[in-house]
Each structure stands twice: as C-alpha cells, then as structure tokens.
Specification:
- This protein has 505 residues and is α+β, with helices and mostly antiparallel strands.
- Helices cover 53% and strands 8% of the residues.
- It contains 19 helices and 10 strands.
- A 4-stranded mixed beta sheet has the order 1-2-6-3. The protein has a two-stranded antiparallel sheet with strand order 4-5.
- It binds protoporphyrin IX containing FE (HEM).
- Protoporphyrin IX containing FE binds at residues 91, 117-118, 130, 137, 302-303, 306-307, 310-311, 314, 370-371, 374-375, 439-441, 445-449, 452-453.
- Pfam families: p450.
Length: 505
C-alpha cells in the first residue's frame, strides 16, 4: 500500500469518526437498542469482539448480554437472538419484517448482489425465484422421481467400499467418496447427469471451485473490510480473488452444464414430460421472460452450495457420531435388521418406518447443525424486537444451535442421545414445529430443501450402517469431532479416516 493510500485512509478515518460521533449523538437518545458491549466510534465493538463470530462465541455473548443483544461491528449492526420466543418473533410473527437477507461485500460478489434466491431481499424477485424453483426441486414428486437415483448412488458407494481392502483394515476417508455421491444426487436432479469417478476432471474442477467459493465466503478474514469501509482498500486483493472465482465458476456452469443441456434438449423430441430435469423447468421460465440467464446461473450456484455442502456435512457429522457412539450404531443396525430384514437394502419408503433412524438424524442435526445461525436475516426498515429498536438493515442472526443446545430447554444437550427424540422430545421435529429446534429454520425463508435432505440422509446413513460396522482407525479410540465454524456454517474440522468392516449376511 502506498503513502497516498495511507493518507487517504487516515483522512477518511477522521471524517468517519466525526460523522459517527455526530450521528450517535443525534440518534443515541431516541433508540432503545438491545444490550451489548459499549461501542466506540467507527470500530463499534469490533476491537473488543474480533472477527470470529461463530455460533459458540455468539452463545458466550448471549450468556453475558441476554437472549437478544446487539454488536456494532463497524458500520454493521448485528442483532443476535437466542430464545425460542424471539426466534418465533423473527421467523414467524414478524416474518415479513425480518424476511430479508443481508449480504456482506463477499456475498455481494458471489450472488451478483442478490440475483439469486438464497441471498435476495424479501420481495417480488425472491417470491418469483422461490416459485420457479419449487416444482423442479422441492416437491414430493421430485423425491419419488429421483429416489431411485439416490439409492443407486449409495449402492455404488457401498460396493466400492466393500471392494477396497484398505477400507476394512487401515480405513479410508469415506467423505471423499460420499462427496462424489452427493454431487451425483443433486446433478441428477439438476442436469440429469452424473460423474463417473472421483477423478473425473470436470468433477475435480467443480469441486475445487465450489470449495474455494465456500472457503472465501465463510471465512472471517475479510470482516474488517466489510465492517469498516475505510479499511476496504486493504481488502482489494481478497475481493479480486472472489470475483475471479465467481466468474470462473459461473462460466463453468454455463459452458459445461447449461449449454450442454440446451444442445441435448434441442436435438431430442420434447413431447415426453418425464425427461425433464430441473434445469429444463428453469430454462422454460427464462424463455417465458420470467427470469434472465444470470438468474438461471445463480440458481445453479445456490444449489451447489445450499444443497450439496449442507447435506454432505450432515452425513459426515452423522457418521462421526455413529462411530463415536457404537451403541447407537448397533441399535440403528438392529432396528433395520428387525424391520427390513438383515441385508434388505433400505429405500426411501423404508425411511418412514424406522423411528430410531429418524431420531439419529434429528440428534445429528441438533448437535451438529450445518447452518447453526441460519442464513442471516435482515429487516429492510426500522423494526421492534423484544421491546428493543432494531435499526433498518440490521443483520439478524438466530442462534439456532444455541436454541437446540441450551440446557434450559434440553436435558443434557451435550450428550449425543437420539432416544430423546423418541422420549421427552418425541413431538419435536426438524420441520420447525418447535422453536427450540430449527435445523432448517422455519417460516418464509426456511429451507425448502428439507424435503430432499431428510430422505437423502436416511438412505445414506441407513445403507452405511446396514452394510458396515463403522469404526475409528486402528489405534484411535474416537474420531476427532472438532468443529469449523464460519459466517453461518459449521462443518467438521478434519475429514476422518474411517474403518468400514463389511457385514456378512
Ligand atoms: C441437511 C441439509 C440442509 C440443512 C441443514 C439446511 C439448512 C438450511 C437453513 C438453516 C436455511 C436458512 C433458513 C433461514 O434463514 O431461516 C436454509 C435455506 C435454504 N436451503 Fe437448505 N439446508 C439443507 C439442505 C438443502 C437442500 C438439499 C437444498 C436444495 C435442494 C436447500 C436449499 C435451500 C435454499 C434454496 C434456501 C434459501 C431459502 C430462502 O432464502 O428462501 N437446502 N437451509
């Protein structure tokens, strides 16, 4: 950075301090803001709080400041709610007021400033995108059409793992193969396509770009430049990389998937409705002029992140918990043996007959929520929440992880005990019927993908436990379940090696 830039930054800092003090003097008296640490001009609470605003750190702040608190992170207001009542207020009672999304500087880049569905403000564009995506992705008809594909994908995983002698001795990083499976599960729906192997060059490119997108977006490293605009020049390099990744990625979606699909559909009879995959529906909407090509590309972008990663992380967490709780694993296996018969491979309709499997999934999603802070909400206009004033365009996080892991609402929440969902919490389900358990959110901006995620989780975990005894690698008593939290995500820090001993039927 040259001297002129430093001089400009200092000048801007001085001007911002003066403006911030004036504004806070003018405003301070009128607003009743939620409690929180005392902010200083320009930086707000950033110097006290730092960058790492993951679900656990925000839980610690909730313990200190209460069920609703405010962090002023430079220019951004961040309100965090941590009680079922306040979650209800944000997601349901005032669902319209708090139904928008904030985007920071990086998400602005990756979503084309909200040309997508997940990160767009609540309004006509969001409504249209959600409507257009519903038929091709979010109905039971889609589940019934694609469940055979998902069953086929996990069958291939099981066969390959059985054929790999290392799997039953030293162990393998099972997640690597499951990642391919998850891409195939979703790419079959989206483009009626699958990748043959983990070495498929297109798959490798796609996986690398998606991984990079997530890493760049979920990192806390760029917070300073997002919170404090005068520091933004220092972020130029980071944002440049984001732009490059975004452009390369969208080009890949366009050249290798959209154009290929268009070519294919233009050369085959269009009479048969069954042949339509999701993107055909989306392209129909484009042809009708309801959305443009950018929107189509951002729909593909959203599915790559919102669907594939979240479900994969949840599968990975589920496996880790089953390995670390062999008694739970055995009980699940016994349930499937008893209800389906030993060796009878679980299919989607079976998932509805297996209460313990359902409980294992619920318990995994409770302790190991892939999106522990939901996707950030936002109020477009000044609003009231819990008796406090929430200035317009505040980022509002619901700490869904804390709601689901707070001893005030759960019996020994730190224990992985699926039985709770058959006993004291038997009425609580992942669809958001109780505001203390919201792994998919609830209300207008809740996850529409729940309808696909739950059967995929059931079939995947079910088949693995039916066919293998899953163990830690030799010499290790338990898997390392350290977490890696992000802007609003949570995944396992280390992809574990797992021993998969085939069962003999
Ligand atoms: C275990 C897997 C999954 C989990 C835990 C999960 C969780 C979530 C959560 C917490 C939200 C935000 C809710 C809110 O902000 O109030 C969300 C939004 C969303 N999810 Fe999922 N999700 C999963 C799988 C999927 C799948 C498979 C798809 C698509 C096929 C999907 C598509 C979406 C979309 C499009 C949104 C944005 C909705 C909107 O803003 O209107 N998700 N998800």
């Amino acid at each position: 950075m040259d001297l002129i830039l430093i001089e400009k930054a200092l000048l801007a800092l001085f001007a911002a301090v003066v403006v911030a003090i004036t504004i806070s003097k003018l405003r301070g008296k009128k607003l009743r803001l939620p409690p929180g640490p005392f902010p200083v001009p320009v930086f707000g609470n950033w110097l006290q709080v730092g960058d790492d605003l993951n679900h656990r750190n925000l839980t610690d702040y909730a313990k200190k400041f209460g069920e609703i608190f405010l962090l002023k992170m430079g220019q951004r207001n961040l309100t965090v709610v941590s009680s079922p009542d306040l979650a209800k207020e944000v997601l349901h009672t005032q669902g319209v007021e708090f139904g928008s999304r904030t985007r920071n500087v990086v998400f602005d880049i990756f979503t084309g400033e909200g040309k997508d569905m997940v990160f767009t403000v609540y309004g006509d564009h969001w409504r249209k995108m959600r409507r257009i995506m519903t038929v091709p992705f979010f109905t039971n008809k889609v589940v019934q059409q694609y469940r055979f594909g998902w069953e086929d994908e996990i069958r291939r995983v099981v066969d390959e793992v059985k054929e790999n002698p290392k799997a039953s001795t030293d162990g393998i990083v099972l997640r690597k193969r499951l990642q391919l499976m998850m891409y195939n599960n979703l790419y079959r729906i989206m483009f009626d396509r699958r990748f043959e192997s983990e070495d498929d060059p297109l798959f490798l490119k796609l996986k690398a770009l998606n991984g990079e997108r997530s890493r760049l977006a979920q990192s806390f490293d760029y917070n300073y430049g997002d919170f404090i605009p005068i520091l933004r020049p220092f972020l130029r390099g980071y944002l440049k990389i984001c732009k490059e990744v975004k452009e390369t990625r969208l080009k890949l979606f366009k050249d290798h998937f959209l154009e290929e699909r268009k070519k294919l559909t233009s050369t085959r009879p269009t009479s048969s409705k069954d042949l339509k995959c999701a993107i055909d529906h989306i392209l129909d909407a484009e042809k009708k002029g309801e959305i443009n090509e950018d929107n189509v590309l951002y729909i593909v972008e959203n599915i790559n992140v919102a669907a594939i990663e979240t479900t994969l992380w949840s599968v990975e967490w589920g496996i880790a918990e089953l390995v670390n709780h062999p008694n739970v694993q055995k009980k699940l296996r016994d349930e499937m043996d008893a209800i389906l018969g030993p060796g009878v491979q679980i299919t989607e309709p079976d998932t509805h007959k297996l209460p313990y499997l359902h409980a294992v999934i619920n318990e995994t999603l409770r302790m190991r929520m892939a999106i522990p802070l939901l996707v950030p909400h936002m109020n477009l206009h000044d609003a009231k929440l819990g008796g406090f004033d929430i200035p317009a365009e505040s980022k509002v996080l619901v700490n869904a992880w804390f709601l689901a892991n707070n001893p005030k609402y759960w019996n020994k929440p730190e224990e992985f005990r699926p039985e709770r969902f058959l006993e004291e919490e038997a009425k609580v389900d992942a669809n958001g019927n109780d505001f203390k358990y919201l792994p998919f959110g609830v209300g207008r901006r809740s996850c529409p993908g729940i309808i696909l995620a739950l059967p995929i989780l059931g079939i995947t975990l079910g088949r693995l436990v039916q066919n293998f005894e899953l163990l830690p690698p030799p010499g290790q008593a338990k898997l390392d379940t350290s977490e890696k939290g992000g802007q609003f995500s949570m995944h396992i820090l280390k992809h574990s090696t797992i021993v998969a001993k085939p069962r003999v039927f």
